[in-house]
Amino acid sequence: MKDCGENISRRSFLRRTAASVVGAGIGISAVTGKLTASGGEPEKEGGDNGAPSIKEYRKLGKTGWKVSDLGFGNAGMKDPALLEYAIDRGINYVDTARQYYDMEKVVGKLFPAKRDKVFVTTKLMPELITADVSEAEILGGIEESLKRLNTDYIDCCLIHSVGDPELGDRSRIENPAVASAFEKAIEQGKIRNWGASSHGPKMVDDFEWLLDNTSIDMIMPGMNMLTAGLGPVIEKASNRGVAVVAMKSLSAARKINYSAFMREGRTARQGLIKWMLAQPGIDTISITMTTFEQIDEYVEVSGRSDLTPEEEKVLEGYGMLLDRDYCRPGCDGCLGSCPHGLPIHDILRYNLYFDNYGREKYAIGRYARLPEGRKAGQCLNCPGYCESSCRYNLSVRSMMLRAHSNLTV
Ligand code: SF4
Ligand code: SF4
């Protein structure tokens, strides 16, 4: 991540970000062509009533599944009809988490009727995984998710948020009970695969450790056109048959007035998805979908990793606007610079949920859990030591103060 914080010309922006994300000379073929979903709906050439449908299914690592190139992220989904609609469009990958309030239960409302149509990934509570958690406690967490999902198996169960110092150091995942609990759950038929998700500052390090020391089947990194340094770990995972599911691919996107970016009937979000689909090693992208219109908008670019020169231009401008206003997933540049030890990456991420995702209540709730001394009110009387450490020259202090104002009730 040494290329952070450079002055970036408009011309070089896309080239630089793409190269830094995928790494040089990776040579992994992510695109598997038209396939029929394993255990899911056969591919449709056109949706009902002319609505768009998924055009491409990709091999999901060694899981034995071929999943839609766009996955349904259900954070914030209140109506199971949305997921039903997405399944009808050909989406057969669903991502949820125990931490998303009742979202597992909302998915479970479609089961058992739709159970064999989708590959379901859920994530255990982040705080459950600690240096001294027991196998039985992890198995208990899996049981809880099974009940909430109204199913007797989970296709993939993830450790939620590895590489986040706020949750603990590496000893969280080095605890031998962690791998043994997931392996036992597989033996018992309760889960079929396991892995880890992260957008934390140490995500690359922890994914590397898990790939080298355990039998994980999936990694789920936060990744988009503004992130950097993920190429080698994605390559390693792909080479080992470990599924790679990207998330946070549209994060920061909602700050922009999209109408200013409309070109040839396409939206900036569609451009961002196409950019992601072109990156090597990505099996599918988990995107939060909260309206029927969004599902149509996103599904329309399934199978479209071709960026036109016009779209590249649009994305260049778009990226330039976001470049100095977006705290990157997986970045640890300013860790240690704050005399109060504020979790800068977490606070700025909560504010993204508030500002950009329409998840105000969730964001306020997460912020409220921080002790007063670790909130961004501390920034009021600080000259902003963190700013000289930021790899991207962000105005960290003012971003923190804005977050504090948004998230304090
Ligand atoms: S401005 Fe805030 S986050 Fe930055 S060093 Fe000061 S107290 Fe820490
Ligand atoms: S504020 Fe800057 S250095 Fe700190 S985590 Fe965010 S992008 Fe990285």
Describe this structure as you would to a colleague:
The chain is an alpha/beta fold and 409 residues long. It has two domains: 10-315, Alpha-Beta Barrel (TIM Barrel); 344-407, no CATH class. It has helices at residues 10-22, 80-88, 103-108, 135-149, 171-174, 176-187, 203-213, 231-239, 268-277, 292-299, 309-323, 344-356, 360-368, 385-389, 396-407; strands at residues 57-59, 66-68, 70-73, 93-95, 119-123, 156-159, 194-198, 218-221, 243-246, 284-288. α2 links the parallel β3 (70-73) and β4. α12 runs antiparallel to α13 (360-368). It is globular. Bound molecules: iron/sulfur cluster (2 copies). The site of one iron/sulfur cluster has 14 residues, from α14 and α15.
Secondary structure layout:
Layout: H1 10-22, E1 57-59, E2 66-68, E3 70-73, H2 80-88, E4 93-95, H3 103-108, E5 119-123, H4 135-149, E6 156-159, H5 171-174, H6 176-187, E7 194-198, H7 203-213, E8 218-221, H8 231-239, E9 243-246, H9 268-277, E10 284-288, H10 292-299, H11 309-323, H12 344-356, H13 360-368, H14 385-389, H15 396-407
Parallel strand pairs: 3-4, 3-10, 4-5, 5-6, 6-7, 7-8, 8-9, 9-10
Antiparallel strand pairs: 1-2
The chain binds iron/sulfur cluster (2 copies).
- Biggest β-sheet: strands ordered side by side in the sheet: 3-4-5-6-7-8-9-10
Mean pLDDT: 86
Q: State the helix count.
A: 15
CATH topology of the largest domain: TIM Barrel
Fraction of residues in H or I helices: 25-40%
Q: Ions, cofactors, ligands: which are bound?
A: iron/sulfur cluster
Specify the CATH architecture of the largest domain: Alpha-Beta Barrel
Shape: globular
> Which residues form runs of ≥5 with pLDDT under 50?
1-47
Gyration radius from CA atoms, angstroms: 20 Å
Q: What's the SSE pattern?
A: HEEEHEHEHEHHEHEHEHEHHHHHH
